[in-house]
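Reopening this ticket.

The earlier resolution said the output was attached, but the attachment link was broken on my side. Pasting everything inline this time so it's all in one place.
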Amino acid sequence: MKVLVVEPDNADLLALKAFTLQELEDWEAANTTWDRVVELLPDNHDAWIQKGITLQKLGRYEEAIAANNRAMERP
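Inline output:
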């Protein structure tokens, strides 16, 4: 994804990359990408939910619960 090299802090593009990685079932890479998205957009509930999904797929259940709890928090 050449555009990510040009705009590495574009949360929208990173989210698209993370969704693509999820479709490819590359859960580690998707989780790393969601880490960056939630770093850039800490109040984005959808990003936290998707991070929780990737953590669940990785068998990291306590972290998945924490991500889902974070998604339910109000800013």
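Reporter confirms the inline version is readable. The CA atoms of residues 1 and 17 lie 8 Å apart. The mean pLDDT is 91.
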